[in-house]
Model the fold of this input.
Amino acid sequence: MLSGNERKNIRSGVSVAIVLKEDQESGKLTDGIVRDILTNSATHPHGIKVRLMSREVGRVKKIY
Done:
């Protein structure tokens, strides 16, 4: 399975599951399609931050 911690694995249009800021404690995941990649670095220990087509912003936990 591809890692959500590496920017190279994520592209606009890819289906992912993210954790929203308000869901970090519970770990609840939100599914969606990547619109924009917001993290500039190649990797991030908590997941690459993205904006979904639904305009929600969070860190990638799963890539489908």
Summary: The chain has one domain: 7-63. The mean pLDDT is 97. The longest strand covers residues 29-37. Residues 37 and 50 are 4 Å apart (CA to CA).
